[in-house]
Design goal:
It is built from 12 helices and 12 strands. With about 325 residues, the chain is of the alpha/beta class.
Length: about 325
Amino acid sequence: MNLQQLRFICAVVRQNFNASAAADSLYTSQPGVSKQIQLLEEEINVALFVRKGKRIIGMTPAGEQIFTFAQRVVGDIENIRKVGQEFSQGDRGEFVIATTHTQARYSLPKAIKTFTERYPGVQLRLRQGNPTQIAEMLAAGEADVAIATESLNSYAGLVALPCYQWNRIVITPTGHPLLQTQPLTLEAVAAYPIVTYDQAFAGRSLIDKTFANRGLSPNIVLSAIDSDVIKAYVELGLGIGIVAKMAYDPVRDIKLEAIDASHLFDPSTTYLALRQGTYLRGYLYTFIALYAPHLDRNTVDQALDSTVASRALLPLPSGS
């Protein structure tokens, strides 16, 4: 038994039992992955995976238990490496943030600018995706932290820390008749074609639920993963937009006007997630505090040590 075999087991599971994808993620060959897993099965005299022909389609009960231990071993090896880097490299290394376009474009720049000025020796990488993809990147060890509004607080093995709350605005081209509607109502919004986020993004499910609760069926003519794309199509007159308030800048978005819609929709919470059992280098704590000042090192450590991370245990600061 060796560490490489355990890495292969974890990779196959992460890649939905696709051995070729697992091999690609580890920069090796698919036959090599299959051979090493087979050697391990022969050594411990038990099958780890359920196979149909040559395809892996699931895990055996024994495989599920061994996978749990393999994850722990691989994670601990990575933690040992991080401890070594902490003491040998100091404030040098790599830091990967998995997040959505909206967070990367509008909520992260200030914290990232300060962080990079403070830690010029740290190579910072942003990996973007939808909330589910982001959670999967973090769970697979492909990112150090994940920041998004949805999915992060429902993944096993991840601790989601609430950062701040936000709400929505309706954006229109300048001079649009909706600007004269006071107060703004859901019925008035639903009377126009709407451009907003994709189903997987930024509280879209909350938008849909809000309209449905009022018996309204809005005409969503276009959905996108990118706030800037939404704004571009609203500028073209395709419809009115529903976007996160943070995504509107009156200085830059001079062809658009915004109407506050916080009285129409419940607020959403943006979370920063970490893997349980992972070792955090010192500069990660600094970044977290820069992004969400109420999340100091002690608060983060307490959350990581808890068996269950709860919103009640980690309240948002007053005024968020």
